[in-house]
Task: structure prediction
Amino acid sequence: MSKRKIPTDESERRKQSRLHKLGTNTPHCATCGNSDWRVIEEHHPDSRKRDKLVVLLCANDHRIVTDEQKDHPPGVDGCDPFLLSVGNFLLGLADMFAIIIERLYEFGETLIARANECAPKPERRT
Result:
């Protein structure tokens, strides 16, 4: 593992530029909580970049939900654009919730396993 470098003017400039683009000095992934500004990206839940609403996700989770969006049903010519946008938005939220739910199960199971490790062991009768 490499030693931590002392921030240079250039690294601080990159950081401040990225934080400005993200619109916050404390970015974090909405699904996993990662707060490393270098891996946080803007995600459009309704799958259209022209929509102004974005959610901050880490690069890994962003790739996952973006891939999931490719399987959402397409709109057809002449469909109601508002309903299409809301439908895509809801499916995009569901994709993010699916990641959160998976992690909640993992955390819950880990906590139960730890709790069970702390339980007193039954005494053996001889």
